[in-house]
Amino acid sequence: MSDTIKTVSDTVSEQRGDLLGAGVPETDAERMRAEFEAAQLDELYLSDRATREGWLTTARYRQELAEIRRQLRAELGDEAYDWVQYASGGNNRVLIDDVLQDSPAARAGLRAGDVVVRYAGELVLSPNELRAATVRGTANETTAIDVMRGDEALRLFVPRGPLGARIGRTRRLPEHP
After folding, report:
1. Residue 169: is it exposed, middle or buried by C-beta count within 10 angstroms (0-12/13-18/19+)?
2. Domain spanning 93-170 has what CATH number?
3. N or C: which end of the chain has fewer CB within 10 A?
4. CA-to-CA distance for 15 and 134, rounded, in angstroms?
């Protein structure tokens, strides 16, 4: 066997090392790792069951998978969940891919390449979370959107509702352990 084959234990060791290297206390890193692995195992069992029963590509599967992830985030808290996503190699930020001309995003100053961190004060880790956040609250009320533009943190203000931007996913080092 080649030494380029990565085992699960190698990946777990790297994740733990990433967390420790970022200043996460060892006991917290171990707890986060254990809870993340338990959730991964739950996801594997869900996938296996859905495949065997023929509902892997259905809304039911996506809902149950989302629930496993919601539970993990609730157990860990937003910031720890962010670190676990990052340490596991997952995408943990929303990337502004393009901004439509004359859109609320353009008028607020959002640019392609900006990375969304918070919307209305809430940590945003996925495009679905950003979309959901834009419809909460009162339509058109002014709302803060915190973004990173390169290494510069910016707070811009947009009306609640569609941003008028094409969004994607990216991976970025969380700000604080």
Report:
1. middle
2. 2.30.42.10
3. N
4. 32
